[in-house]
């Protein structure tokens, strides 16, 4: 150890001696996490787990009733200890009620979450347009079929009528790049559109789209609805929580059915639509004798190029020239989901494992772009040899020890090579032997809604009907969408796994994305073999027959749009009602932490899904606002929010809702299988 490093470790030790330490075994259910947290503590490196023990959250903020949007505040309106007796007289200086304050805070979370997803989507649309115009060698059109499928949604024709040799009219395919350019222009236009409706709103089931129109919540443009939240929640503007929630709805639909959905679609067209593939997950994917690069963050524009760069023979040779046997490229957070689902590349871990990956001492570079990147990785990296490389002009870390290599899409591969080379150059700087946990799991991932169509429907007109059929005959009780983050206030991965296992046991098939997908992967739930271990008999039978895992990994959080499309396909396949709100389905984010999760939660709710959050929701200090979200929205949208911390109760509430919907569909009684009759077909046509 050099003197400089010794001094740093001593300083870190002094700092961490003053803070309490987390108990590793009480911090996570994941063995690799427990081992690395113990190592961090032996190395005197402080992590988020330790800070969560020494710093308690603010009680008033937790209730959602702290207002700091003007300098007369912060006005703090906690619930009185005895509860509200009689009339609630709490007010901010300006008179703002707890409801107004909590609703404004909630709306700003929706705005930030929608902005994060949508700004990601905008970047994708920009690069897509550059690729369509052949302005870059590094990106192109990979999935033409998907482009042809989405072009009509943007009112872009895929064929053209030309004159034949004898003057007759012939319909011809348009050039694929011409179609792409027109789709790119129209997609990009969705952000700045000022009036009318975003195109994708019409993708929802007809009944849902009509409901949104009737309620006047179809987004006019993606950016506009986000900006309007910021305006309405400025001091002294919108002071009716019902009306604030209505604007949340516009912005959230603009996220789920707008920015996020466009991001997913255009990424699929440029990089390929995911189809089932194998992968591995957990810190055990790192290798002692390889250069280990972790790509962490969210945007596949960067990681796709690093995938290419890390596999170039001259890069691999360069790594060997430095004494390594090769290069391991592994992902973290949603970037991981993106490269896993498309290339089968390994995942090092989910959100709460980012510091711990560095603690292995085996990570030569952690390359980050945007979102969910903890500032503390720079401090942890300082105690080891890891280079943190920031790449996005929107996201830098104030630290003398991070390197910024800006990633420019026009020069993508060259930038990616520079990044990989920096990692390789750092390999000889390791501080002796690394300690890599052995834990890793195999998994089958990549269930885009197109892949589910194919897998469950077979080749005959690929369809969701077999899934519906199994829901109708009761082998599958319903569908659970379980998604979202880790949260240091909640035992790592524990609530995720309890909720998912409880659903499986009760024959509820699970669709997953984000950090929940990774928790499931680490616990072996993404393997087809897990069906007979964890599922009730009906679901196990279906999974074993079709050969799918009982938990279907659909991608990153932006890809929650795939869940919306899957739900829409289920409605359109028939037999389960006319709208998403009729389906025996429920959503869940057991360990949420990011504002993006709130935007996702809200677009699920207003798309008709009962959506339960764990950990806590900052609405409890405003009872009337909470009632609006948890109860009244059901009467308006057919979906509503809920918050249940206990993961077992959380899952039971989802199952009760699923049963309620089954009863409404008349599926609670055992029914003989019937073939679709004319009435069913007519209903199908009405829905589509
Ligand atoms: Ni989603 Fe993905 Fe994870 Fe949460 Fe963060 S990585 S975008 S926000 S923490 S699931
Ligand atoms: Fe206080 Fe009203 Fe200002 Fe909020 S807007 S900080 S409640 S005075």
UniProtKB/TrEMBL annotation:
Positions with biased composition (Low complexity): 7-16
UniProt catalytic activity: CO + 2 oxidized [2Fe-2S]-[ferredoxin] + H2O = 2 reduced [2Fe-2S]-[ferredoxin] + CO2 + 2 H(+)
Record region (Disordered): 1-25
UniProt: [4Fe-4S] cluster 1 binding residues: 58, 66
Keywords recorded for this protein, A-Z: 4Fe-4S, Iron, Iron-sulfur, Metal-binding, Nickel, Oxidoreductase
Superkingdom of the source species: Bacteria
Binding residues for [4Fe-4S] cluster 2: 67, 70, 75, 94
Positions bound to [Ni-4Fe-4S] cluster: 298, 334, 372, 485, 515, 557
EC numbers on record: 1.2.7.4
InterPro entries: CO_DH_a-bundle, CODH, HCP/CODH, Prismane-like_a/b-sand, Prismane-like_sf
GO MF entries: 4 iron, 4 sulfur cluster binding; anaerobic carbon-monoxide dehydrogenase activity; hydroxylamine reductase activity; nickel cation binding; peroxidase activity
Cofactor list: [4Fe-4S] cluster
Pfam family, one: Prismane
Signal peptide stretch: none
Stated name of the protein: Carbon monoxide dehydrogenase
Species classification: Bacteria, Pseudomonadati, Thermodesulfobacteriota, Desulfarculia, Desulfarculales
């Amino acid at each position: 150890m050099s003197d400089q490093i010794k001094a740093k470790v001593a300083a870190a030790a002094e700092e961490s001696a003053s803070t309490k330490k987390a108990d590793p075994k009480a911090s996570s259910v994941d063995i690799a996490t427990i081992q690395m947290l113990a190592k961090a503590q032996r190395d005197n490196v402080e992590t988020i787990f330790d800070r969560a023990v020494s710093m308690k959250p603010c009680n008033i903020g937790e209730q959602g009733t702290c207002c700091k949007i003007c300098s007369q505040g912060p006005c703090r309106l906690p619930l009185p200890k005895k509860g509200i007796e009689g009339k609630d007289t709490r007010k901010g200086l300006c008179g703002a009620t707890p409801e107004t304050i909590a609703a404004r805070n909630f709306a700003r979370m929706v705005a930030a979450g929608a902005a994060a997803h949508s700004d990601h989507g905008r970047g994708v649309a920009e690069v897509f347009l550059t690729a369509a115009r052949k302005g870059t060698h590094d990106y192109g059109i990979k999935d033409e079929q998907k482009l042809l499928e989405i072009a009509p949604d943007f009112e872009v024709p895929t064929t053209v009528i030309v004159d034949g040799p004898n003057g007759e009219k012939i319909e011809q395919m348009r050039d694929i790049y011409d179609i792409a350019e027109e789709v790119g222009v129209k997609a990009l236009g969705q952000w700045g559109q000022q009036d009318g409706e975003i195109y994708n709103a019409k993708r929802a089931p007809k009944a849902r789209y009509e409901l949104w129109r009737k309620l006047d919540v179809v987004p006019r443009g993606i950016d506009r609805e986000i900006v309007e939240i910021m305006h309405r929640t400025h001091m002294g503007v919108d002071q009716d929580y019902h009306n604030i929630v209505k604007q949340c709805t516009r912005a959230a639909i603009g996220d789920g059915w707008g920015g996020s959905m466009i991001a997913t679609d255009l990424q699929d067209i440029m990089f390929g639509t995911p189809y089932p593939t194998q992968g591995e997950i957990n810190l055990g994917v790192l290798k002692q004798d390889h250069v280990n690069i972790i790509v962490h963050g969210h945007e596949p524009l960067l990681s796709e190029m690093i995938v290419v760069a890390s596999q170039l023979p001259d890069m691999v040779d360069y790594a060997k020239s430095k004494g390594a046997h090769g290069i391991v490229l592994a992902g973290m957070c949603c970037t991981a989901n993106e490269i896993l689902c498309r290339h089968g590349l390994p995942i090092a871990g989910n959100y709460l494992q980012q510091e711990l990956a560095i603690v292995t001492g085996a990570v030569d570079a952690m390359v980050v772009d945007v979102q969910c990147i903890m500032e503390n990785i720079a401090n942890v990296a300082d105690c080891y040899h890891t280079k943190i490389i920031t790449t996005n002009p929107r996201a830098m870390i104030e630290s003398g020890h991070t390197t910024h290599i800006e990633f420019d899409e026009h020069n993508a591969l060259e930038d990616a090579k520079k990044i990989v080379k920096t990692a390789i150059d750092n390999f000889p700087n390791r501080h002796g032997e690394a300690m890599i946990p052995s834990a890793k799991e195999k998994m089958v991932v990549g269930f885009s809604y197109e892949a589910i169509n194919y897998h469950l429907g077979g080749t005959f007109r690929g369809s969701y009907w077999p899934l519906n059929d199994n829901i109708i005959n009761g082998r599958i009780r319903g569908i659970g969408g379980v998604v979202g983050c880790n949260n240091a206030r909640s035992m790592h991965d524990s609530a995720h796994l309890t909720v998912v296992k409880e659903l499986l046991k009760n024959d509820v098939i699970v669709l997953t994305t984000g950090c929940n997908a990774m928790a499931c992967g680490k616990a072996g739930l993404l393997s087809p073999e897990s069906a007979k271990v964890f599922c009730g008999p009906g679901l196990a039978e279906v999974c074993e027959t079709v050969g799918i895992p009982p938990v279907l990994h659909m991608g990153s959080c932006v890809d929650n749009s795939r869940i919306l499309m899957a739900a829409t396909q289920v409605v359109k396949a028939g037999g389960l009602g006319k709208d998403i709100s009729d389906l025996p389905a429920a959503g869940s984010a057991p360990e949420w932490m990011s504002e993006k999760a709130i935007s996702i939660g809200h677009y699920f709710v207003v798309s008709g899904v009962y959506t339960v959050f764990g950990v806590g929701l900052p609405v409890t200090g405003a009872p009337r606002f909470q009632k609006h979200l948890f109860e009244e929205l059901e009467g308006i949208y057919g979906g509503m929010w809920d918050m249940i911390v206990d993961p077992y109760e959380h899952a039971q509430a989802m199952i009760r809702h699923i049963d309620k919907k089954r009863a409404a569909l008349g599926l609670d009684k055992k029914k003989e299988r019937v073939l679709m009759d004319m009435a069913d077909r007519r209903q199908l046509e009405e829905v589509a």
